[in-house]
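Re: that chain you flagged

S.,

Sorry for the slow reply, it's been a week of failed gels. I finally had a moment to sit down with the sequence you sent. For the record, here it is as I used it:
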Amino acid sequence: MMTTRALQLALPIAVAIATSARAFDIEGHRGARGLAPENTLAAFSRALSIGVTTLETDLAVTKDGVLVVAHDPVLNADLVRGPDGQWLAAAGPPIRTLTLAELKRYDIGRMNPQGRYARQFPQQVAVDGERFPTLNEMFALAKASGKPVRFNLETKIRPSHPDETVDPPTFARLVVAAVRDAGLTDRVTIQSFDWRTLREVSRLAPEIATVCLTSETDGLDTVQRRTGAASAWHAGLALSAFEGSVPRLVKAAGCASWSPNFRAVTPALVAEAHALKLTIIPWTVNEPDDMARLIDAGVDGIITDYPDRLRTVASAKGLPLP
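Prediction finished late last night. Pasting the structure tokens below so you have them in one place:
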């Protein structure tokens, strides 16, 4: 029989073995944006063929209440061609003002070559004729692949633009219903920068894990570290109430995971998140050196536009992969 002292010594070893055996989470951002048109069935197919563990994507709601896969609440002129085959001259109408049938008339199979956005992803291969998929179409594609992939679904909603989308309770209710109807509650996480939807999801479906997204960049600061005031993005929670600790803020919001901008991640923050029983999965990491640094810091997964690069780096690091 193992003595108490021997058991104390063995437990950390057992935990370390179990942790090392857990598959590293390779999340294909918007499917595989660096390789195929973002948030299309073509991108999700490409990601599945590479061997992602999770399909990361974004959601919007049409005028007739259908959940569709789309990053921007309004039609993006860098990505969208009209029924006449011409690029939109400017941002189009909000998706919530279009029925699914109207939305399906737009082609999102390539980036506008005249825009700056296209220059960011020179490896992306166009697939003309791709349309905005519904969430159910994405689920069906993954099911047909036979792969036990997970889904990380982001509610695209901004507290500063309440007219762009449905309200948080409605958004959350629609997503929860779709996930339950698909029988995927154990394979889905729901993430958002706007934590109001996450709180609604937790209230409606505590069995579905939520992911708190944060950003502290010049272009998007959801944390409000400088002011310490309650952030509109964080359902009224204030960083100052948690002594400046974002992991503690995330824990208080009820999230199981934290997804920060990758440039903010340090080994100390990873350790703090893990001490709070949070998984940490940074976004959006595209350079191999950054991937390697974050893996060395101990993150649980990475969201990337290039899941092929991430698999290569993770394999070189000796991480268990599916």
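What I noticed first: The domain at 24-316 is CATH 3.20.20.190 (TIM Barrel).

Talk soon,
D.
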